[in-house]
Design a protein that fits this description.
The chain is of the alpha/beta class and 245 residues long. The chain has one domain: CNF1/YfiH-like putative cysteine hydrolases (4-Layer Sandwich). Helix content is 19%, strand content 27%. The chain has a 6-stranded mixed beta sheet with strand order 5-7-10-9-11-15.
């Protein structure tokens, strides 16, 4: 089971990270550590991958798995049943991981400065423009006490979009700095992590950390729907460990 842990300054109680595509049981084109049931992979392989993931997580007893719909609903991981339709989850009870699955979309991690509450959001461009970050941040009492991390996503040199995406972010803070012309007429390259970071800063989050990883260009480590079409999903997780000191 391969999982990456970024060197972000999180409180002792907080654990976070994301899986890669390596080290699991799935066969091509989902090879090999696919965490998603909805992509056409063998359910036996997915359950084996999820079981291996849970067993590898220090101080975690359960993972809250969502059915993501590119919307703005946020649920409490403690009470949400697996498969609940939502694109973000918050959690304060130790031992329960809030998780979102990605294969180009941006996973956004949230944690309170004292580690008492954490959350994670699935932010594709539609969910980002619709307000998923705002809805997630609203679950915390004070944005000034929240820190955020941006996990692996499609990078600014690979995410080609049309005018509809530019129009969706017309009033976004710093939007003009997040798009540049692409090689094709009527196409632009969008910087999804930068769009998220500008909004979080505008909302009062004092620190935003980035993985700098591009899912599209790193085929060995990450799944990418835009690159491959039929492909698996990584799991991005954050939790309050029962073993934290």
């Amino acid at each position: 089971m391969t999982m990456e842990r970024p060197l972000w300054p999180v409180p002792n109680a907080v654990q976070l990270g994301w899986t890669t595509r390596q080290g699991g049981h799935s066969e091509a084109p989902f090879n090999s550590n696919n965490q998603a049931h909805h992509v056409g992979d063998s359910s036996v392989a997915v359950e084996a991958n999820r079981s291996g993931l849970l067993a590898s997580l220090t101080g975690c007893e359960r993972i809250c798995w969502l059915s993501q719909v590119h919307g703005t609903r946020v649920v409490a991981a403690e009470s949400a049943a697996d498969g609940t339709e939502a694109d973000a989850a918050t959690v304060s009870q130790p031992g329960i991981a809030a998780a979102v699955m990605t294969a180009d979309c941006l996973p956004v991690f949230f944690w309170q400065d004292d580690g008492a509450q954490v959350a994670i959001a699935h932010a594709g461009w539609r969910g980002l423009a619709a307000g998923i970050l705002n809805e997630t941040l609203q679950q915390f009492s004070d944005p000034a006490r929240v820190r955020c991390g941006l996990g692996p996503a499609i990078g600014p040199d690979a995410f080609e979009v049309g005018m509809d995406v530019i129009e969706a972010f017309a009033n976004w803070p710093g939007a003009q700095r997040c798009f540049k012309p692409a090689g094709s007429p009527g196409k632009w390259l969008a910087d999804l992590p930068q769009l998220a970071e500008f909004w979080l800063q505008e909302a009062g989050v004092p620190a935003v950390y980035r993985s700098q990883a591009c899912t599209f260009t790193d085929a060995d480590r990450y799944y990418s729907y835009r690159r491959d079409g039929a492909t698996g999903r990584m799991a991005n997780l954050i939790w309050r460990s029962t073993e934290a000191v």
